[in-house]
Fold this protein.
Amino acid sequence: MPVATTTLLKLLLAPVLILLATLAGRRWGPAVGGWLAGLPLTSAPASFILALEQGPHFAARAALGTLFGLVSLALFSLAYGLAARRAGWAGCLGAALAAFGVSTVAFGGLTVPPGLAYALVCAVLAGVGAMMAGSRPPRPPRRLWPGDLAIRMALAALLVLTLTSVAAALGPALAGSLSPLPVFGALLAVFAHRDQGAAAAVQLLRGMVLGSFGFATFMLVVGGLLERLAVAPTYALASASALGVHGLTLRVVRRVS
């Protein structure tokens, strides 16, 4: 079943991504950790499964919905950054989730050509990235204990399992609305906020926003080519395009962080 397979992928990838992003953030800064979290490590396999089991047309339409989900991700990050000026991590997370929910409802039924959707999403990502610039340097990270890292990985798996189970119980509509929820970004931002202060969380989320151009490119290729090419070459082209764009954005993230 697609839901079961996607859940397994998320449960396997969530702890690994949290581990890699945490270590990358401590080695190269929070922005690089956020950039790594911008990869479509769960959405890409889920899209491929949809294409195989539900057909190219269904997967192409789903890719457009996921593409618009990046607008919600960007507004989530912006709301967190704005709230971080005067609130702790709990208040910031609440404001960010509220912004994500409003955006998801607003864009949920929007249907436009993939090229126009891509242009809109890229404009939002670039605009939010620019608006989040200029934060002060974060505090140096405190010593990371092995047990702390294990707790972060376990929380990532538990949160993904909980969200997936609730969505499956309430039906496919909720599952679709929850799919672009920035679980990894939210966890990483809270950890960074707690460990290094609000500036670290803002840098991380800005890195995630700037790292989402590759994600958007993947969904554009899938949405635009899946009904014209076979499934395998479409996803191969989408993956190659996404990795190329993602690599370019790393240079931007490293330069401005």
User: Anything to note?
Assistant: The CA atoms of residues 31 and 203 lie 5 Å apart. The radius of gyration is 17 Å. The chain has twelve helices and no strands. The chain has a mean pLDDT of 82.
